[in-house]
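We now fix the convention by which a protein and its fold are recorded. The integers have meaning only within a learned vocabulary of local backbone shapes. The record below shows the convention in full.
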Amino acid sequence: MYRHLLVPIDGTDLSTETSSNAIDFARTLGARITFFHARPDYAAALDGEAEIVRLTSPAKFAYAYEGRVREILAKAEAAARAFGVPCGSATAVSDSPAKAIIAAARDAACDLIYMASHGRRSGIGMMLGSQTLKVLVNAGMPVLVAATSNPPVPSQVMDVIRDEHRSLAAVLHAWLNLLDRKEEMDGKPDADLMRTMIQYLKTFSVSMHRPKENEYLFSRLRRRSTRYDTELSELEHQNADHQRLIGELEAAVERHLAGSAPLADIREAVASCEQSTWEHMQRVEGSILPGALNHLTPEDWEGINAAFSDGGDPRFGRDTNTEFRRIFSRIVNLAPSDSAGD
């Protein structure tokens, strides 16, 4: 059976669904995953908009054509780690995504390419996207194509929730990588950056994401079915414990900055928060979301979708979400990435 999957992902809204399905498949097989992203060679053929952005805003260019890739892969890796799937990631610069995908699969010694098709359905079945078809024809190894289409509202909501989970887990893992690098270099962590990370976790996780899940998703599921009461009660306990762990992390940071605690205390606290986030992801994505899919009404899903969309919750508007994305980008792109072989 297959032991090593190459999973190409891009920056579209379907990436979360693709990576989630691939992770479920890999768990069933006991396989590892290498996530892969191919981006065009903008530097070799700069013209038009790309050239203007590079000349007028080098930082924006670096993010748009490099930093965004790291974010996409970091989220996919975070999801795999949360569900115990060994993973790594790889990137390539290529104007031929299909060739890059095949080369990456061979370089990583993968035995299956798992990819989504962005083609549409017709009366005679699925029409494969051009890159997917090229991979199928030329790969010389098994290729599993997962059909995708315009997702219904429940799928859109679940992808948003999964994406928020991945953002939180990716930030914590990036923090661990930064701490490891500081220990290796015998350096001092950036105090402002660590306090920014704490603020991100306190505001986004404790004050925003988990309360929205409870108010808009969990409460509706409780009304529709008693089957998940035990799981939902456990999530309440997890949320309280997660808040405590973040408080302990904040205290460890301040003690270290004051010179009264070693860096190892921060690392231990970050690792505990990461484990708590994984447990939350496993319970919500493994039990609550499937249960909601079975029991909630279309009206329920519309209400949840409105709350989780940008600015949907009156307590947190678009400006807040934009700031969270900016902080997430900064943290993830500062951290050294895991290699594909780890």
Observations:
- Residues 4-147 form a domain with the Rossmann fold fold (CATH 3.40.50.620).
